Amino acid sequence: MSSQPSPSLPLPSLTLTGFLTLLLIAFMMGANHVAARTAFNHGVDVVTAVTFRSTVTALVVALILWQQKVVLQVNSRQRKFLLLIGGLIAVQSVCLYSSVARLPVALALLAFNTYPLATALWARLLYGHRPERAVLLAMPVLFLGLALALDVLGAASGLGAAQQWGQIGVGVAFALAASATFGLALVLTQHEAADVDGRLRTFTTMGTVAVLALVVVLTQTGLHLPTASAGWWGLGLLTFLYGTAFTIMFTVLPKLGVVGNSAIMNVEPVFALVLAWALLGQSIAMMQLAGALLVVATVMWLGLRKR
């Protein structure tokens, strides 16, 4: 979650370096979820993955805060909301990885990428903001694309609606729960913590997630470590990719002036689709691919439209 530019100021033009950096972040985020699925296939559970990922990322951002001498100052209201936002991201992380563990990676990410709709809903409910016309127009298109991608009627799989939902229902529910909690976290960040330095917000968020995950690990499940070398590779890569992507997002992107163009990173499911096909043998039907591209294109249009 990064600071948004003032709506009264024009967005900086997107340089080639900025564009390639955004694509790199999207690639790493997509690869992170493919690595997570590999880890899940070899003994790692969701809480263990979240614990490793968040703890290492929090430590890296803490080093950045120290190296760049960032002032660690927030008021009492911001402190409360930063903790709440961290709790929401913890729930989002568990839900999204739980979806990735049950669905083809790209489909889990596509369902999660409906979060712009969740964001508009929470802004309306909590702060009385009327959804923009563009969001209202995008809603049916997003839902159509998602329905095609998930093959909700079971046409592509030949299973029929009932059997299809028996297979994908839980995974879709987790992805939509991740979308809802992430949307709420974005709205609270914008309205309650926008003045907090983005690096400090990232540290408090990842630190809160790490602490909550460690509490669960120590009091309930314990660490579920990989049972094969492929699982260790998956766990190591998901931690490295996630931490590196977030570090770039909050230290490099603001300097490049491309925050307003961050919707380009929503090509993440496309990267995940290719990587999951190449590395995990996951594939989807042409109808599902068309739906996936429709979702990605709509989300990018929402993010890149002129306001």
From TrEMBL:
A GO term from the CC aspect: membrane
InterPro entries the UniProt entry points to: EamA_dom (IPR000620), EmrE-like (IPR037185)
Parts of the chain that traverse the membrane: 46-66, 81-100, 106-127, 134-156, 168-188, 200-218, 230-251, 263-280, 286-304
Keywords: Membrane, Transmembrane, Transmembrane helix
Residue ranges of every copy of the EamA domain listed in the record: 17-149, 171-302
Pfam families in the cross-refs: EamA
PANTHER family cross-referenced by the UniProt entry: ACYL-MALONYL CONDENSING ENZYME-RELATED (PTHR22911), MOBA-LIKE NTP TRANSFERASE DOMAIN-CONTAINING PROTEIN (PTHR22911:SF79)
Name recorded for this polypeptide: EamA family transporter
